[in-house]
UniProtKB/TrEMBL annotation:
Pfam family, one: PEX11
Gene Ontology BP term (one): peroxisome fission
Predominant cellular place of this UniProt entry's protein: membrane
Name this protein carries in UniProt: Peroxisomal membrane protein 11B
Transmembrane segments: 83-100, 120-142
ATP-binding found in the keyword field: no
Subcellular location: Peroxisome membrane
Membrane topology category: Multi-pass membrane protein
Amino acid sequence: MNDTVDKLVIFLAKRDGIDKLVKTFQYVSKLVNWQVETTHPDLANRFKQWEVSSGLSRKAFRTGRFLTGFNGLRRNPGATPTFKFLAVLANAGEMVYFFFDHFLWLSRIGTLDAKLAKRMSFISAFGESFGYIFFIVSDLIIMKQGVEAERKLIALQEEEEENSKDAKEKIRKIRGDRVMRLMAVAANVADLIIAAAEIEPNPFCNHPLSLGISGLVSAWAGWYRNWPS
């Protein structure tokens, strides 16, 4: 119990930890609002206000977040040219997303002209979608390489018993990395659906159930990835 509390404290001390918690509030309130909209209008309105305030607070809390894209580009200096290229595209899209998200927030709270909100939302969502596509591609390629490396290690284990301990440790690391990348892919696909709802509104992406579930998948996948080990 104490260990869980300690991990929760560490998790909530991170900017991403707070963001995932508030994102959970945002999309749970969206789902509740949709569910009770016709039967309990007053209650639905309260949850709608909670959803809007959660979304705006997340935008305020992400101030300056676009600068983390530069750090993302420096993370793997030894990466192959292909992965460097994918990293540049992915982080560039994410930086556009977070940068224009500042103006979207300011227009929605009335600091800037409210008419700018729609344009800023489109640019921000387009950059988000662009970046997520390349993050997903990168993770899928790395996962494929991991599967191939794991198969070779399993074959090595069967052939050379003296290398089995080392091979087991490498396999464990590959599988652990695969789980984290699966969580990243799930979160990015979910966020891509949410962004698509802004870029090109459609019945599927814009449905409250689709948005609510996508938001929770993204939040909880991020929660899993950021939870202290």
